[in-house]
Amino acid sequence: MPIEIAVGTQWGDEGKGRVVDLLSAEADLVARFNGGDNAGHTVTVGQTTFKLHLIPSGIIHPHTLCLLGNGMVINPLSFLAELEMLEKAGVDVSPRRLFVSQAALLITPVHRLLDQAQDEARGAGRLGTTGRGIGPAYVDKAARSGLRAGDILDEAAFRSKAQAHVAEVSRLMQVLYHKDPLDAQAIAGDFVEKALRMAPYITDVGAIARKNLAAGKRLLAEGAQGALLDLDHGTYPYVTSSCTTATGLFGGLGIGIQAVQRVVGITKAFQTRVGDGPFPTELEGEMALRLRGSGANPWDEYGTTTGRPRRVGWLDGVLLKYVVELSGISELGVTKLDILSGLPSLKVCTAYSLDGRSGDEFNVARLGEYRPVYEEMPGWEADVSGARRLQDLPAAARRYLNRIQEIAGAPVRLVSVGPEREQVILA
Ligand code: IMP
User: What is the residue-wise DSSP string for 282-337?
Assistant: First the structure.
C-alpha cells in the first residue's frame, strides 16, 4: 500500500506544507490533486521559507518526482513565478522531475478579473474568495469550455482558443458587471506567450502515477485547502470549487481506487478561517488577537495567499469528528501547539446546541444556526517549542492532545511545536 494522503481537516491553513515536507522525505512521488494557487503551503528549511501555491511542497526534497494532477486549476503565470522562485533558491525544477497534467484546467488573467467582479457583486453575500480565478476556471471545466494545459501544446489552436475565451469573458463582464471592454488580442497574446513556457512540463500525469504505483513506488498526495471548504461536503456556498477531502485523490490524479496506507488529517490546535461563512467557535476581542498574532511573524494567522487576517476560534471537535469520517482519516497531525502555551485555560467544542437540544450530531448545511458547547481544560505555561517527544510536553498539553484524539476518533501521530522542520514530535 504505497499511498499516503495528507489533507486539511479545517478551513485550510492547517500547516499542511510543513507536514507534507516531513512526509516527503520517505516518498518517491508527491502529487497535488485539487485546487490551484488559492493554496499557500509554507515550508521553512533553515533560513529559507518557501511559500508554495501550486507546486507540491515535496519539490524541496531533491529525490522526489512532483505531479500536478488533472483535478487542479493552474495559472501558468503563477506556475512560472514559482519555478523562478524555486530555481533561485537552488531547487531542481526541471521537467525531468516536475509534471503537469495535460487535463488540468488553465486559469487565465480574465478568470481572475471575473472572480473578483463576481465576488464584489455579491455584496454582503460575498464569499471572500482569494480572487485567484478558481471558481470561474472550474465553471469553465464543468461547462466544457475551458482551456486545458494540453492545449498549450498546439500553439496556433491555443492562441485562437485563448483569444475567444478572453473575448467571451470580456462580453460577460460588460453585460453583467458593467466593466469596460477588454483588449482580447493583447491580453490573450501576452498570456499565450508566457503559457508556452510551460510546455515542457505538460504530459499524461495519470499515466506516470499509475506506472510508478505499479512499480511499487511510494506516492504522497498533498491536499489543498481543508475538508470544510469542500465543494460538496463543506460549508456551501462558503467553500472552494474543488474536492478537498482525501477521496478527491483518485479522480484528481487519475489513479484507480486502491488501498491507502494512511490518511493524515492535518489539524491546527485551534480553529481558523479566512473568508466568509459560518464558524461556530469564532472568537473576538483579546483572545482572538492572542491566537492570531500581530502579523510580525510569518506563522501568525494572516493568509499566505492574500495576506488577509484570519478569523480564529477554539478547536471545533464536532467538525473534526465529521471530517475524520468524511475523509477516512486514519491519524491526525496537530500543528501549532506552541501557540497555546501561556493560556490559563483552553476550550474545545464537543457538542452543538440548537432549539434547546445539544449533542454532537449536526447538519453541515445548517452550521450557522448552532451554538458551541465547550469543555474547558487547564492550559500550560511552559514554552513547548523545544519538545521533541511527547514526554517533553507539560501534562496539560498531553491531556489536550489526548482529548483531541478521543473526540476525533483518530490517534494523534504528529505534533508540530514551531515553524522549523525539526520542531516536530512523532508520537
Ligand atoms: P476560492 O478558493 O478562491 O474560490 O475561495 C473560496 C473560499 O475558500 C474563501 O473563503 C477562501 O478564503 C477559501 N480558501 C481558498 N483557498 C484557501 C486556502 O488555501 N486556505 C484557506 N482558505 C482558502
Answer: B--HHHHHHHH--S-STTSSB-TTT-PBPEEE-EEHHHHHHHHHHHT--EEEEE-G
- pLDDT at position 162, please? 98
pLDDT value at residue 270: 98
Is the separation of the CB atoms in 112 and 74 below 8 Å? no
Q: Which residues contact 390 (CB under 8 A, 6 or more apart)?
A: 398, 401, 415, 425, 427
Q: How far is the CA of 346 from the centre of ligand 1 (A)?
A: 27
Cell numbers for 89, please give them. 533558491
Q: Which residue type sits at 275? A: G
pLDDT (tens digit per residue) in 29-68: 999 999 999 998 888 888 888 899 999 999 999 999 999 9
- DSSP for 165-203, written as a single string: HHHHHHHHHHHHH-PPPP-HHHHHHHHHHHHGGGGGGEE
- pTM, entire model: 0.96
Give ligand 1 pocket residues (Cβ under 6 A): 11-13, 38-40, 127-130, 132, 134-135, 224-225, 229, 238, 240-241, 274-275
Which residues of the chain carry a pLDDT beneath 70? 1
> What does the pLDDT read at residue 423?
93
User: Which of the residues are catalytic?
Assistant: 13, 41
Pick from 140, 248, 242, 153: nearest CA to 204: 153
The C-alpha atoms of residue 210 and residue 199 are separated, in whole angstroms, by 22
Give the span between the Cα atoms of 117 and 109, in whole angstroms: 13
pLDDT at position 47, please?
83
> Going by CA atoms, what residue is nearest to atom 15 of ligand 1?
38
Distance separating alpha carbons of residues 415 and 427, to the nearest angstrom: 8
* Predicted pLDDT at 1: 63
For a substitution probing ligand 1, which of 51, 127, 240 has the most ligand atoms within 8 Å of its CB? Answer: 240
Tens of pLDDT along 108-166? 999 999 999 999 999 999 999 999 999 999 999 999 999 999 999 999 999 999 999 99
The structural domains of the chain, ordered by start, are 3-95+205-426 (3.90.170.10), 105-200 (1.10.300.10)
DSSP 268-291: ESSEEE-SSS--TTB--HHHHHHH
